[in-house]
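Hey everyone, long-time lurker, first post.

I ran two proteins through the pipeline my lab uses and got sequence/structure pairs for each. Pasting them in order. The first:
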Amino acid sequence: MKYLDEFQDPELARRLLDEIRATVTRPWALMEVCGGQTHSIIRHGIDQLLPEQVELIHGPGCPVCVTPLEVIDKALEIASRPEVIFCSFGDMLRVPGTGRDLFQVRGEGGDVRVVYSPLDALRIAQRHPEREVVFFGIGFETTAPPNAMTVHQARKLGIRNFSLLVSHVRVPPAIEAIMRSPSCRVQAFLAAGHVCTVMGVGEYPELAERHRVPIVVTGFEPLDILEGVRRTVTQLERGEHTVDNAYPRAVRAEGNPAALAMLEDVFEVTDRSWRGIGVIPGSGWRLSRRYRDYDAELRFAVDGIRTEEPAECRSGEVLQGLLKPHACEMFGTRCTPRTPLGATMVSSEGACAAYYLYRRLQTTPAPREASPVA
């Protein structure tokens, strides 16, 4: 069967697929929350191996993709200042802001550097006390603890020329917003295993019960995803809606206590805007009052920047699971990895990038009929 030879254990994959086929009796729509899972699904053709009754909907689980345009513009403004060394992970440099990106800022003379850890940025601040060093802190619950630890360390060491531009988001409020959308077709969720490694599963039972949807914590390897789908379909067919940990080798119910303590110390929950979606209440973090001096948004007075998304980019619909990437009329034509209209085409976890990279290029434009999540 196509794709199965790529699996680490093709026979186990066949057994899981056979079980799913034997179990499913009606159409079901499952959303994988994580962009890493989306890339694994598209790369290995998992969505094409599953029976046609099982639809996988790609969710807003790409942290680069959901970073709002106004935050990108704030990053561009800060990075353009001559006194600043602006540090970021590499996948943020191609994300388009209003008219340019961080690569262009660097080409114009801005000191924009790619780092592999927020601690790299802190070390740069130690070596250059005469400069302001800013780290672009984006991501879900997985990247928030190391960013929190870095700010904590900066305060402990008395390093005053370091700050964090924060755009952290949280998964459970996004699930809540998706389920409250009038356009929602999602009947179950494959929850991101790495998020639950940090946070545990404590926030999910209430969501599962309130919206009567199964939530299965799932890993990222092809067999992990098939097992997650199998458990999810089994619950749906039985009329159940519980939280199930299908990734026990990494996830404990209580999460990581040390990481949670660091998050509680450094951050506080706030409303957060998601690119292409809008503001989701309680869906993000900002630096707590104790660490507010390390907030780059306040230090450089860019908190007043407000921007609007370009109308031609439909990445918001892709992030909400309302549109498959190749159904966008711009996909593969005006919007490519070299000329992206939105972050979903340039991020290593973006759904549009996955479809382009793994040659899902058939364009079938769809009418605009989706309502926003928020």
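...and the second, right after it:
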Amino acid sequence: MKVLCQVGEQIAGTVEAAVPSAEVVVVPGDGPVAGDVQGEVLLTTAMGSPNLASVLERGVRWVQTLGTGVDAFPLELVGDRILTCSRGASAVPISEWVLATMLAFEKRLPDTWIEQKPQTWNFPAGGSLGALHGRTLALVGLGGIGTAVAQRALPFGMRVKALRRSDAPSPSADVAIVRSLPEVLRDADHVVITAPATPETRNLLDASAFSVMKPGVHLVNIARGTLVDQEALREALDRDIVAMASLDTVTPEPLPEGHWMYGHPKVRLSPHVSWSMPDALDALVDVFIENLGRYERGEPLLGLVDVAAGY
């Protein structure tokens, strides 16, 4: 089995060492490719490469992107080929990030840290701190990341409900599946967006969605910025519907200098880093290595993309 690799010699060596039956050929991501290069499998970037169209014509039947989403991938080039991604590989660090943002919101961090003698001791200024215990978590999306968030939230005593695009059953008896956006948003204390970015989910959280939320909600977005109507979010923040927005992803990325989100007191903005952990890249590659074995054995592949649906 010949694999074409557009993500560097180091990753190519890792794949070849893990799957001795695979011959991995490193090909450039831009410009011409040697005329005699052929391969059945292509490992490429999450955004595709400038020369992707020509590389696909080298006998490629299966494409795997080294990333967890395909919203930036040129899906129109896939044709009748199989497309997979490393979906779920970043679920651990991202779900930990979500729990960190929810805890920071409830415990008012870093505001409760002090640098000088406070007016009161043993009693937090501004009233008691919050807790995750007894709070309602709404998950907009219940794939690998949403499931990982739920698994970590439940031991804190949170009530968890989720909206998912498929009819698949709940991964846990303690996670309630709802069938409409208003139903999942209503009465939530924390709303976490984990759904994929597709044409159908663009501006999913718009003015009408924010109008359903109860005042004081905490919004967390670790999916894609396109799922949130950012002007509607701004209004919801200013009207105290959303008490805090913890945003690891926005649109565009990066935001231009002077954008209102940088200075808004109710926005905690991070530069799309929730995926980061030691060996994060290895986790992405491991999915491809697992898939190579499945491909050879004729077994279903992980992270299969529905090209028509865009995810």
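Reply from user beta_strand_b:
Welcome! Quick read of the second one: The CA atoms of residues 245 and 303 lie 29 Å apart. The chain has two domains: 2-89+278-297, 91-269.
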